[in-house]
Amino acid sequence: MSLTNLTAKTIVSLNAAITKALDLSTPKQIIDVLKEVRFTFGEADVNLINQVFHDRRLLALSTEDVLDLTDGTLKNPFGEEVDFDIIRVIGIFNRSDIVSTSPVHAVTDAEIYFGKANATFLGPLGVTGIPTDAPYISLEAGTGMLFVAPSATGWPVTETTGDDLVIGNADGVDQAMYDIVLLGEVTTP
Prior knowledge:
- The protein is an all-beta fold.
- The protein has a single domain (50-185), classed as Sandwich (Jelly Rolls), CATH 2.60.120.
- Helix content is 0%, strand content 43%.
- It contains no helices and twelve strands.
- The strands form three sheets. Strands 4, 6, 9, 10 and 12 form a five-stranded antiparallel β-sheet that branches. A four-stranded antiparallel β-sheet has the order 5-11-7-8, with no helix packed on it. Strands 1-2-3 form a three-stranded mixed β-sheet, with no helix packed on it.
């Protein structure tokens, strides 16, 4: 563990107003749901994190990005290797609806997915299965997802057999751009 402090707060909020015009009144129903989870620095307990990886990445058409969570290829913002033992937060945001003037980043409405074939780390999607039957989540352009596991066990990462996080571009015509944030724990030896 190389960082000396790391805190995070995840918030999921939904607020909606429902009305129906009747003859003499217009009743209104409010839906207001808020879930906040805070994480502090540490390891081996509930709501603790000690490492982060984040990046904006570009996928060519019909390709997969395999992020090995344990081989040292992921780096934290200070350029230090990150070998996760537990993942507690996964945020993936499909930015493919954002068109840039640069030809390298000229993306349109590419669809990305998390999980699917050959994914050995499925985190919130459940246990690994036969690659062609592996569960996955599809994110259309402009959408995102946030998964949070504050428990002491979080989503365990198993070196070699459960450490590849797969994110792919399902579009055969357009590139896909996405942002990813992983918060978790690296257990000190």
